[in-house]
Amino acid sequence: MGVGTAIFLGLVQGVAELFPLSSLGLLVILPHLSHLAVPTTGAKYLPFLTALHLGTGLALLIYFLKDWYQLLREGLWSLLGKPSSTGRLFWMVLWASIPAGVVGLVLKNPLSHLFGKPMWVAVFLIVNGFIMMIGDRWHQRRAADRTLEALQPKDAVRIGLFQVLALVPGLSRSGSTMTGGLGEGLSYQEAARFSFLMATPIILAAALVELPHLHAGAHSLLLPALIGGITAGCAAWLSTRFLMRYFQNHRLRAFALISMALGVFSLVIMH
Length: 271
Description:
This protein is 75% helix and 0% strand. It is an all-alpha fold and 271 residues long. The protein has one domain. Helix 5 (85-106) packs across helix 10. The longest helix has 25 residues, at 222-246. It starts with a helix and ends with a helix.
């Protein structure tokens, strides 16, 4: 894999992971649409994609560094009998991270086979759009928005179940979890913030599992992964900054339509 390809894929990852368009879906489809010289089988491509996700996760960690400092501090204080709303939010993020972590470990091998089936991934991009449409509909039915501090463990777990969908290439992590948050009564901005916070631990945990496999095989992807990961991190930081402002006044509808259009376009081209 060349440096230019790694940078290009890193840009796609950094933008599409936070914009609800499924970075995994696009990274699976693009090599088949543009004939990029990348190993698209799950065993070789998945560790490289994990490195790109690591760059994204680190960017999220840096962007929300002040939040994470307060969350960790207050979360630990709550264990010592000094509860606070920030401490509760820390535990809500952890509760929400459990479903995707468990399912990812159990279904890792079956899910990796989808990386070699771009037609299915294109279909899931269309499904991804419908999921976000449902999120918009749920929000419209709410009389008032809830705050993150009002979430209960059962609410966090339900939102976390939506993150499980993101294990399927073509279904967006941010789109799915924002839909889950909207279903629990959060505003678009609060749903986006919670989505980005809960994505950080699961992305970093996945990286710890997959990154050692970058050395496997004669053709090491370590250097391209490093370059792509840095590129993805820079793009993800800028994307997060934009989206936290965007969702103050906008819905998911535009991204839903873009995702469905990308899925239909990919199906037509590949067919």
